[in-house]
């Protein structure tokens, strides 16, 4: 295209794109933008944002009066999109035999561990069939979950507590190691755990795990009290002057 029109809803940008030279632009970000657009020949115009049409991924190359060939091509694209969405939802392998890039390996590992963990099996059964009327009638492994019974759901083979995944017993230590990989201390690591994962006594397990971390103990902040440093009392006024911040000459 020899020339085209750029329509924007930010009015101060129009003179920058149309008339100002590089020397007149002081903002480095706008200078970079102007430099990248210098190879194109266009005219910038302004239009209110409420008057702009909202484009989407499938309407960037519309045609007026589509021909039968266009309609046939549109159907082919629709079939391709439908097939792609179906693959994403079902998580099937791609055509070359490899694993689907949209499958979460960690979730697959959690799902496989939950299918073999007795506690997760009993918990999923209680969620799907309903908890007993009294805590004493629960399975012995499900006592800690009684207070959270209204927050627990089963989603695609995984137990979820609110927005947190319930981790099976065999993966809890590995989860602690991943959460504490940055060695940020008990408070920050526990805060992160409360956003993503759950199991009974997770906060206590986190504190014990970090307390036994040799690297954290090696770099632990020392809380010893430093002795107060005193100087000899002055014998006259202004013999010694002390300030927190000072500049001279």
Task: Draw up the topology in text.
Layout: E1 4-8, H1 13-18, H2 28-36, E2 42-46, H3 68-90, H4 105-116, H5 118-129, E3 152-155, E4 158-161, E5 164-166, H6 172-179, H7 186-196, E6 197-198, H8 202-211, H9 214-218
Parallel strand pairs: 1-2, 5-6
Antiparallel strand pairs: 3-4, 4-5
Helix pairs in contact: 7-8
Distance between the termini: 64 Å
Helix content: 25-40%
CATH topology type of the largest domain: Endonuclease III, domain 1
Given the C-alpha coordinates, what overall shape results? flat
Q: What sequence of helices (H) and strands (E) makes up the elements?
A: EHHEHHHEEEHHEHH
Secondary structure category: alpha/beta
What is the CATH C level class of the largest domain, in words?
Mainly Alpha
How many extended strands? 6
């Amino acid at each position: 295209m020899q020339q085209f029109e750029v329509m924007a809803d930010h009015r101060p940008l129009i003179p920058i794109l149309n008339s100002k030279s590089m020397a007149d632009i002081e903002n480095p970000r706008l200078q970079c933008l102007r430099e990248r657009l210098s190879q194109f020949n266009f005219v910038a115009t302004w239009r209110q944002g409420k008057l702009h049409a909202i484009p989407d991924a499938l309407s960037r190359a519309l045609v007026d009066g589509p021909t039968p060939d266009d309609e046939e091509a549109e159907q082919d694209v629709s079939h391709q999109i439908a097939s792609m969405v179906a693959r994403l939802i079902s998580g099937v392998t791609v055509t070359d035999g490899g694993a689907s890039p949209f499958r979460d390996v960690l979730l697959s590992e959690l799902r496989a561990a939950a299918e073999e963990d007795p506690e997760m099996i009993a918990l999923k059964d209680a969620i799907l069939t309903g908890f007993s009327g009294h805590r004493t009638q629960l399975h012995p492994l499900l006592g800690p979950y009684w207070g959270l019974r209204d927050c627990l759901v089963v989603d695609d083979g995984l137990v979820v507590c609110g927005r947190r995944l319930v981790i099976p017993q065999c993966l809890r230590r590995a989860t602690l190691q991943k959460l504490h990989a940055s060695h940020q201390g008990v408070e920050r690591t526990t805060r992160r755990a409360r956003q993503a994962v759950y199991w009974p006594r997770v906060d206590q397990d986190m504190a014990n795990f970090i307390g036994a971390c040799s690297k954290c103990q090696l770099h632990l902040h020392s809380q010893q009290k430093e002795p107060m440093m005193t100087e000899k009392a002055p014998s006259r006024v202004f013999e010694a002057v002390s300030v927190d911040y000072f500049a001279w000459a």
